[in-house]
Amino acid sequence: MKIDGAWHRALESDGWTVRVLDQRRLPHEVAWLELRSLADAAHAIRDMTVRGAPLIGVAAAWGVALALRDEASDAALAAACATLAATRPTAVNLRWALDEARAALAAVPPADRAEAARALAARIADDEVARCDAIGRHGAALIEAAAHGAARGRAVQVLTHCNAGWLATGDWGTALAPVFRAHEAGIDVHVWVDETRPRSQGALTAWELAQHGVPHTFIVDNAGGHLMQHDRVDLCIVGTDRTTRRGDVCNKIGTYLKALAARAHGVPFHVAAPSPSIDWDMVHGKDVPIEERDGDEVRFVPGTAADGRLARVRVVAGASPVANPAFDVTPAHLVTSLITERGVCAATEAGLIGLFPERARHLGGAA
């Protein structure tokens, strides 16, 4: 997508040169970092230099490739996958990308393995962008349908939570792809952007939308219910870090509360879910491992000081303990639909298998 009018991906590669947009410094400063090793890739995922489930998977694939460039033995492949798997537990795309790497590279002779891994990482990145592009097309139809029902003279009002745009996926995004597509199609659309504390990923969403010229308004997390109560939200679209095969959705902490408010006020609640984010081995959302992150993410708020310098401000007294669960689970019955690269379906096992019939065999039969 766009940075100052120029088209970029959040992770860009040219041969063995891999660079990522440092999301820790956005939206205050645009900075790129080069990944040169397995350790660089693992650190970038763990400290959220790169974030967003799809982009984490892409970065992990490149981490494997960079590791095998130094040592391409079976042991090195296993060690690289183990190192990357330990970085973040919730986003299933990480496991998916590593499973893809193991399956594709195990039979490749070590002498050819590094180049095969590089080609695989590039393909995974391109495939992720293609999935997001397709999600954008399917989801834009939902926004267009809402436009026909919106009050005359009013834009379609979309509420989103966290950042599920191109920064989180490489290009287009999941939840934001329908918005970008609708905007480019001339549909009058406006986005309510949750701040999404504690990491404030909503500021990244606002930055993306501003770069693309999409009308939007940044709001505190607790404003969403109020807006829905006063008929100022037509639909919600969020992303997902892991969706169970029965349609439970794990996403950034606070998503569940938005879904509850949406159900209370009759607002459709859609989840943009590319297939690598679907965990076909997991039935119930209660089984999703929820990452507990460092309490300092809550104790401190980053921003820009009056003199333009990046600053870090303490907002919680030092004596107070802090809990920082990074995700919550929205039960499937609160999800209006899942938007995948193959189309839109109900948040049920039958709905998902209707779009991915090959999984019925994997599950031992129909849903």
Give the ordered list of helices and strands.
EEEEEHHHHHEHEHEHEEEHEEHEEEEEHH
Let me know the largest β-sheet.
Answer: 7 strands, mixed
Q: How many strand elements?
A: 18
In DSSP terms (H or I, runs of 4 or more residues), the helix count works out at 12
How far is the first residue's CA from the last residue's CA?
Answer: 38 Å
Structural class: alpha/beta
Strand order of the largest sheet: 8-7-6-9-12-17-18
CATH topology name of the largest domain: Rossmann fold
> What is the strand content?
15-25%
| Low-pLDDT sequence parts | none
Tally of discrete structural domains = 2
Q: Give the overall average pLDDT.
A: 95
Helix content: 25-40%
Structure description:
It contains 12 helices and 18 strands. It has 367 residues and is an alpha/beta fold. The protein has 2 domains: 2-127, translation initiation factor eif-2b, domain 1 (Four Helix Bundle (Hemerythrin (Met), subunit A)), CATH 1.20.120; 136-362, Rossmann fold, CATH 3.40.50. The strands form 5 sheets. Strands 8-7-6-9-12-17-18 form a 7-stranded mixed beta sheet, sandwiched between helices. Strands 13-10-11-16 form a 4-stranded mixed beta sheet, covered by helices on one side. Strands 3-4-5 form a 3-stranded antiparallel beta sheet, with helices on one face. A hairpin with a 4-residue loop joins strand 10 and strand 11 (249-252). Helix 2 (53-70) runs antiparallel to helix 5. The mean pLDDT is 95.
